[in-house]
Design brief:
The complex is a heterotrimer of chains A (275), B (312) and C (260). Chain A is an all-alpha fold. Chain A has 12 helices and no strands. Chain A is elongated, with a radius of gyration of 22 Å. Chain C has 10 helices and 10 strands. Classes of the chains: A mainly alpha (275), B mainly alpha (312), C alpha/beta (260).
């Protein structure tokens, strides 16, 4: 009954959540969805075939089925984006809460670093880090995380500062509650909702950043099926085999749209103040 | 901005630049790949191990990291950012050659973006919560979700391959080469800015002076375009500055797609070639330019906003 | 000249003003008094067709010089505002674009309703300011609103409002943001306008002292409805409801002088 009410009240959210779930399931069950075709095995005699009944999205320069690669690409993109969001969420929350709660030099050090990170274009730095560390999905995740955590730290800090001097916190301190207890019992729960909203709305953006890095050759390495990388490969065949870039791009677009819509819908539920 | 604030900002910029330069240096120092081999490889030579060692010594690469860093920093202050391994030319010269094309591209795309975002945002604000508003909001939502490299490729497919109106490779210096790269960059930005313009205009429309002007019978278009619009640009100015700064660093993708000869493309090839001096120079330059643009924007408020002028 | 006939004003289907009627003749001053939220500002906004955020007159009619205002097209409204009917506000300075010079706003206003050159409009502005006894009009024209004191800004607002010698001046709490001395000056100035130009004035105020001092008619409002209305002496001499009595008792006597 409660579920029914929730669905009724939050139709949009449920629809987008369902779509997102569908995407995630597709990624998990990629071998089933693609009927067991390998995303990496090349069949050179099938190279650069236009979309047909056998290869509904066509094939690439090595004769690999693009539909299969697009489906498997969801695995790479989703894992990497979730990883980035999780890392920056955790890192930002912890550092922000610490900075806000303890103040003093802890705050100064953390926030000065955060200040520094926002005072120059992060993607330039991410590009340099990812490129120099060597192209791999893992390094791209590290690079994007390194330049993106500051937003969460700032948010967490300001939220902590808001309740830092409330009476009930003071009461907890006076009654001898240990600092870790106060942090986990009062501070963290207070910052989580806002940061979850931010994280949800960030998934799409992070996906775009990561795909961008891969596109430039600073992310996934061949033969990994990854959308940004596939677009880069397709770029060279734009005249003869445009389907090589059409479908991976459409995949990014669709997935990012779904996750952005989901994030917005979640914000509408959790933060109804925002019109 | 007062003189005191200005001094503080300049100091901050120097500190951040130092931090960034150190970080970049640290990463390149720790990174895999041997610059000496890279350099020889670029020149097409396969030297013996002895020669490599000698060159390392001669280039000072065997010294402790901090010594190398301060040495490099001292030269940077003098304007010498070292020599590119891959191009064997001064980094400063390479960057300077590419600065103008990228700047041109960035400014044109900002201009195009405003051309789209301002009327749409204005239409949304003046028809708040109407069908028009929702429809336009939906469109911009899709715009934000499009990867710009895909937009670039689609534009290229359509205009260069299918219609053959524009060149596939935009390395020439003429205006034609600027069109698609700047449209691509403007695309995603306009989606983002449409929302911002809408918010800013709505904020201005709720101000008392708008009621005042209406009470005086001033024509609605005059209220919108001669009063509300200029005022709403004030809060947008900071954002525009930030965007221009990020664009200078964010053009890489588009420059690569269209083979446009800008800084971003240069940086990508530098990273691929482990051309450390060039990477270091690039990151430092972009950061400095970014911070200086933002400083310039903040200073400009003193001139464009009479209320700030008074406070000075 | 102005006849408000039994109007009801709704915001989002909720009436904020109910069955309001009043009549104002040439060179008459009427006060709308009542606590905040009683709907007095809504009434005068309706007369100018400037109801904020979806407000609507749902019943009754407003006649100005015998013609229904509610049938006005947007353009007719616009031409009426600032010419035959003008308005001044609690802080007239805030009603001017803060990033433009007063002179520029003034010129924009004058040229909206009359096709004259910019320099002529500028001179006209200075003349109006000086008629409001604002010294060095040229200086003021070159100033930004935030550079003037509250009293000066209010007089600038009145000067602007009087530019086209309106038949009706609507004043929304014109003195409440000012100190007592300035209040008195502004009140006197408004009364002179009536004497000089025959302007009819509706002043919205919660200051019963001001209302009693300057008006011919007083309308007391509460919760969107008229509680008492009539000419001043009637209202003040005790011919009124309990609510008005309470308002009267709440007026502080200042320096022993009590207008009420």
């Amino acid at each position: 009954m409660e579920v029914k009410n929730f669905v009724k009240k939050n139709k949009a959210f449920c629809l987008f959540a369902l779509l997102a779930l569908l995407i995630i399931l597709t990624a998990i069950f990629a071998p089933v969805v693609t009927g067991g075709v390998s995303p990496t095995d090349s069949v050179l005699k099938d190279a650069l075939q236009a979309p047909s009944a056998r290869h509904i999205f066509g094939t690439d320069k090595l004769g690999r089925d693009i539909f299969t690669r697009v489906i498997y690409g969801a695995r790479t993109s989703l894992t990497a984006s979730f990883a980035v969001v999780l890392i920056i969420f955790a890192l930002g929350t912890v550092l922000g809460v610490l900075a806000g709660y303890f103040g003093g030099w802890v705050d100064a050090v953390i926030m000065r670093i955060a200040d520094m990170m926002v005072s120059f274009p992060g993607m330039v730095f991410a590009m340099a880090i990812a490129g120099i560390l060597g192209a791999s999905v893992r390094n791209a995740v590290i690079a994007v995380s390194l330049v993106s955590w500051t937003k969460y730290a700032r948010l967490a800090r300001s939220l902590v500062l808001k309740i830092r001097n409330r009476d009930y916190v003071a009461a907890a301190v006076v009654t001898g509650s240990k600092t870790p207890y106060i942090l986990t019992k009062y501070m963290i729960p207070n910052v989580i909702p806002t940061l979850v909203i931010t994280a949800a709305t960030d998934i799409g953006g992070m996906m775009l950043e990561l795909a961008g890095l891969s596109f430039l050759g600073f992310g996934a390495k061949a033969p990994t099926p990854e959308w940004g990388l596939m677009l880069n490969e397709g770029r060279q065949f734009i005249q003869s085999a445009p389907w090589m870039m059409l479908y991976p791009g459409a995949a990014i677009f669709v997935v990012v749209v779904v996750f952005n819509l989901l994030g917005d819908a979640l914000r509408d539920i959790l933060d109804p103040r925002d019109e | 901005m007062t003189a005191k604030q200005l001094r503080k900002r300049l100091l901050q910029i120097i500190l951040v630049a130092l931090g960034i330069s150190f970080l970049t240096f640290l990463i390149t120092y720790l990174a895999p790949g041997d610059p000496v081999r890279t350099m020889y490889a670029a020149a097409g030579i396969m030297p013996s191990e002895d020669i490599i060692q000698e060159t390392r010594e001669a280039m000072g690469l065997n010294r402790p990291m901090l010594v190398q860093y301060f040495d490099w920093l001292r030269n940077c202050v003098k304007g010498d950012f070292g020599n590119s391994y891959a191009y064997n030319k001064p980094v400063a010269q390479l960057l300077l050659n590419r600065l103008w094309p990228t700047l041109k591209l960035s400014i044109l795309s900002m201009f195009l973006m405003l051309l789209v975002a301002v009327p749409i945002g204005m239409a949304q604000a003046t028809h708040k919560n109407s069908v028009v508003d929702y429809a336009l909001r939906g469109i911009t939502f899709f715009g934000v979700s499009m990867p710009n490299f895909w937009v670039g490729l689609l534009l290229m497919l359509f205009f260069c391959v299918r219609l053959q109106l524009l060149p596939v490779v935009s390395s020439g210096g003429d205006f034609k080469c600027l069109i698609l790269p700047s449209v691509t960059l403007a695309f995603a930005m306009s989606a983002k800015y449409t929302r911002q313009v809408r918010t800013a205009i709505l904020e201005e429309l709720s101000q008392d002076y708008v009621t005042g002007a209406r009470a005086r019978g001033v024509k609605e278009w005059k209220i919108l375009w001669l009063n509300v619009f200029p005022n709403s640009l004030l809060p947008l100015l900071t954002m525009l500055g930030l965007s221009l700064g990020s664009l200078l660093g964010g053009t890489a993708v588009v420059e690569v797609i269209f083979s446009y000869p800008g800084m971003g493309g240069l940086a990508v090839s530098a990273i691929n070639a482990y051309d450390y001096p060039l990477i270091q120079g690039y990151v430092l330059w972009i950061s400095l330019i970014y911070m200086l643009i933002n400083l310039a924007v903040d200073i400009s408020y003193n001139y464009v906003d009479p209320r700030m002028r008074e406070k000075r | 000249m102005l006849e408000i006939q039994n109007i009801t004003i709704c915001y989002k289907d909720r009436p904020t003003v109910k069955n309001f009627s009043m009549t104002l003749h040439r060179a008459e001053i009427a006060s709308l008094v009542g606590e905040s939220g009683s709907g007095k500002t809504t009434v005068i906004r309706a007369v100018l067709g400037l109801l904020a955020g979806g407000g609507k007159v749902t019943a009754g009619d407003i006649l100005f010089e015998g013609k229904s205002l509610l049938k006005n097209t947007p353009d007719q409204w616009r031409k009426l505002r600032g010419t035959d009917v003008s308005m001044i506000f609690q802080d007239s300075g805030a009603m001017l674009n803060p990033t433009r010079k007063i002179g520029d706003v003034f010129v924009e206003y004058i040229r909206t309703h009359e096709s004259i050159s910019k320099s002529d409009a500028w001179k006209r502005g200075i003349a109006m300011l000086e008629r409001m006894r604002l010294p060095s009009g040229d200086n003021i024209m070159h100033s930004y609103p935030f550079q003037l004191s509250g009293g000066m800004r209010q007089r600038v607002g009145i000067a602007m409002a009087m530019t086209f010698q309106p038949k009706l001046l609507l004043a929304d709490e014109p003195t409440s943001a000012l100190d007592v001395t300035t209040q008195a000056q502004i009140v006197r100035q408004m009364m002179e306008l009536r004497d000089e130009y025959g302007t009819g004035i509706i002043i919205v105020t919660h200051n019963l002292g001001v209302a009693a001092y300057m008006s011919d008619l007083i309308v007391v409002m509460k919760n969107g409805e008229i509680c008492d209305s009539g000419n001043r002496d009637d209202i003040l001499s005790g011919n009124h409801s309990g609510y008005t009595q309470k308002l009267l008792e709440a007026v502080p006597s200042l320096g022993g002088v009590r207008y009420v």
